[in-house]
Amino acid sequence: MTEIPCGAHCARLCTREGLAEVLATDRGLLHWRAIRSLGDRGLAEHAVQETLLRGWRACGHFDERKGTVRAWLAAIERNVLVDIVRARAVRPGDVGWDDITEVVTGGRPDFADGLVDGLLVDQLLARLPEPQRAAVVEVFLRDRGYREVAADFGVPVGTVKTRVHYALRSLRQLPDVA
User: Fold this and answer.
1) Looking at domain 109-178, which CATH architecture does it have?
2) Model pTM score
3) What is the per-residue pLDDT across 100-118, written as a single tens digit (0 to 9) for each?
4) Strand, helix or coil at 111?
């Protein structure tokens, strides 16, 4: 991988360390969102790769004053998902217009999928200590920024990041439950 020199604004995706950090912290969330929107694991993996590629190419255009790297990548991913659904829509019989509307509006799983996912998430979160659980719920499930969560909790931003880091590390070490 060739490192691209970035200017004053940089998402750090242009460095091995920065990309490794994003892969460790955000790849799972990007993949989960892609699966929820596309319903296909292969297409979801393609969407994540395309998202990271676009992020890498535009690394120097990131502006932290507008949000976090996670939020920036989520916006890029949304565009990638819309592009994938549009490309699938031009092939007759592959995808209908309802599928495009579902991705554009955020897509909503059916009741049974939502219930099963919710129960699984609840089981996993129940295994975490309360401070870590609260941080994960706010950052991932409620899609809030670290700074906003830290202000609400009355703790430094680094504390929220540390809680999320250790929570994710603990969850990665659990055996697959699904």
Assistant:
1) Orthogonal Bundle (1.10)
2) 0.49
3) 445 544 555 555 555 455 5
4) helix
